[in-house]
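Pinned message: reference record for Molybdate ABC transporter substrate-binding protein
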Amino acid sequence: MKTTLVKWSLILLAVFLWTGCREKQEAGGTLRIAIASNLQYAVDSLVAGFEKEHNIACEVIPGSSGKLFAQIREGAPYDLFLSADLTYPESLFKAGSTLEKPEVFAFGSLVLWTMRPDIRPSVELLVSDEVRHIALANPRIAPYGRAAQEALEFYGLEEQVRGKLVMGESVAQANQFVQSAAAELGFTSLSTVMSPELRDRGSWVEVDPQAYNPLPHGVVLIQTGQAVKPEARKFYRYLFSKEGKAVLKNFGYSVNE
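Predicted structure (tokens):
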């Protein structure tokens, strides 16, 4: 008798869980959101609020803006693209992959970051013998990597530190070099060091915004056939909502009020 009750309890639990998942899927399916790596922490927080409010499941796919752009051009089934470089979503619009032009939802900032307790990060320190490796994202495909390269040129340090540069495919990979102490210093996004996971780890200094071109972050809705998912439009609106802007600001982004 006891075994039978346990068996039925497990069956009822399984039915309950399956029904909940099905209801969530029927409410809108799963959104596939391609994002620049620097947005990972902020978007995770955005998605949590969005899923709770709209009961729509989301899958977040991070990567360098350039690599995600190439995947979308090849037909990757993404519903939205959040890029740290407007060039990529603008190109998708011109190619007819989106119905609307990209909209800027935030501006990012560049920082120098270290996990070494004996180092106080600064631009001047980049040329010292104390720093043998400097991490940054690949400037060819990652906007924050390009901003880092622009900053080095601005300060006249590009040639002096060329042999120290360690490039990751994206900001996320550059972050790994810093976190593992494989690089004494690294260029990353302000949103990285403002995230709950890393806020109290290491030390950082913001790079003078005049040293690099602005980092506007744009979003586009990817069309499937000739349509855009209604659920994707809901996330798009949420991104520009009061709640969405509050999350972005909490992670160090500047937004238009």
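Pinned by admin. Summary line: DSSP finds ten helices and ten strands in the chain.
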